[in-house]
Write a structure and sequence with these properties.
Elements lengths: L4 E6 L2 E5 L2 H13 L11 H29 L4 E6 L4 E5 L6 H30 L14 H5 L1 H24 L7 H14 L2 H27 L5 H30 L2 H4 L5 E4 L4 H7 L12 E5 L2 E6 L21 E3 L5 E2 L5 H11 L3 E5 L5 E6 H12 L5 H10 L8 H8 L1
Parallel strand pairs: 2-3, 5-6, 9-10
Antiparallel strand pairs: 1-2, 3-4, 6-7, 7-8, 10-11
Helix pairs in contact: 1-2, 2-3, 2-5, 3-5, 3-6, 6-7, 7-8, 8-14, 11-14, 12-13
Length: about 425
């Protein structure tokens, strides 16, 4: 979120802008200058640049409004990033109640609406009722009645007003990632009491609107090349909404899935009274080269602890016959364990914070019920979310002891926690 250029701060919140804005402002300056060529041939590009910069500032103001409102609602904001396709506010943590989501979301459309009203008001003060005429040629007659200079500023005001009204309308579409989608999310969250239901509805709505806008763009494209913009907007909306839906489903799966649903029996029970020599001959020497087996010491029907197999290297081999596995046992009190109902987002946080390869799942009576490693978590999520991950890939995750970065499991688990 902070990969852009820092342009300032407000209320201690750093503001970043995407470098592509420089190209966009330049393009808009050239494109908009055509409207001023007849009125001011020598400074037409300058007026185009003024309009483009005012356009950028109005977009920036609407996004800054998110950050200001979040501070008012007591939600810490770490950054504001102004991008061409809207922008983003980074919350830490995310808003925890539907009213905060609503007020933060509505702030931007209200600011855009304000700039729209101000733009039309300035144009009306400069040119009178002519600015509200439906006749497109009326602007061409304005220089005769109010002069070139006032006509130019009237056009600038109208351009800014129209752009902001358009942004207000589009931003209120009830579909993520538009502000209207967050408003819909807040409403459903308030009614149902389920935050994730709100995100699901708003994401699905985003996909539906994305398809409808693409169909609209396709129809427009049959007669006007401007339909390409609608196709791009619909594609962007559909893809972004799909991303929100993916993250929402993943969060829900991390919350709904517990250790009992995830664990496997990938461990071996070994008698505590077994000598180190027998343990080495019957188990260690028989393991595959890349295997990292987990051994649990057991005696008299009770699990006693985890066997630190690597510790056998610290014991003189001449003593292996006389010593038992008791010398290698690490009591469960010294091992990080979880119970059946521990959620997997908690397990992920535990493994990442302590850099554990796995965690032991213990039953209510204290025995070892299973093991959960990163591969087991991926397999459980694969079954719940129908990712269809190849078994070879999950096996490699078990060996590597790392989650694939593109799944964002660690990041999302930290957010949930």
């Amino acid at each position: 979120m902070r990969g852009g250029i820092r342009i300032g701060s407000i209320l201690g919140i750093p503001i970043y802008t995407d470098a592509s804005w420089f190209l966009i402002i330049g393009f808009l300056a050239v494109w908009l200058s055509a409207a001023y060529t007849k009125l001011s041939p020598s400074f037409a590009l300058g007026y185009g640049a003024i309009t483009a910069v005012l356009f950028f500032l109005s977009i920036a103001a609407s996004k800054i409004a998110h950050g200001v409102m979040s501070q008012v609602r007591g939600v810490k904001t770490t950054a504001i990033n102004i991008k061409f396709m809207g922008g983003a506010t980074t919350f830490e943590p995310e808003p925890q109640d539907p009213l905060s989501v609503f007020f933060i979301a509505i702030a931007a459309p209200l600011v855009s609406l304000f700039f729209g009203v101000v733009g039309f008001t300035i144009a009306w003060l400069l040119a009178g009722d002519a600015v509200f005429s439906t006749d497109p040629k009326i602007i061409e007659t304005l220089p005769e009645s109010i002069g070139n200079s006032r006509t130019i500023w009237t056009i600038i005001s109208l351009n800014i007003a129209r752009i902001n009204i358009i942004f207000t309308v589009f931003s209120l579409i009830p579909a993520l990632p538009f502000e209207g989608g967050y408003i819909l999310k807040a409403a459903i969250w308030k009614v149902t009491g389920d935050r994730y239901a709100g995100i699901r509805w708003a994401s699905r709505s985003g996909q539906v609107f994305g398809v409808l806008i693409m169909l609209w763009g396709g129809l427009v494209l049959l007669s006007n090349f401007s339909g390409i913009f609608l196709l791009f907007l619909g594609w962007f909306l559909f893809g972004s909404a799909g991303g929100y839906l993916y993250l929402n489903n993943l969060r829900q799966a991390l919350i709904d899935t517990d250790a009992e649903m995830t664990m496997t029996r990938d461990f071996r029970l070994v008698d505590t009274d077994l000598s180190l020599r027998d343990f080495a001959d019957k188990f260690l020497l028989m393991e595959e080269k890349d295997a990292n087996p987990i051994y649990i010491a057991s005696s008299n029907g009770r699990d006693r602890g985890l066997i630190s197999a690597n510790s056998i290297r610290n014991i003189d081999s001449e003593m292996w016959q006389s010593k038992t596995l008791q010398s290698l046992i690490k009591p469960f009190e010294e091992v990080d364990t979880v119970d059946f109902k521990t959620k997997i987002y908690e397990i992920i946080n535990l493994m990442e914070q302590k850099q554990l390869r796995y965690v032991i799942v213990r039953s209510p009576v204290g025995s070892v019920a299973g093991i959960v490693d990163r591969g087991d978590i991926m397999r459980a999520l694969d079954a719940k979310l129908l990712w269809r991950i190849p078994s070879e890939y999950i096996k490699q995750i078990k060996i590597d002891g790392k989650f694939p970065a593109n799944f964002r499991l660690v990041e999302i688990s930290e957010q949930i926690l």
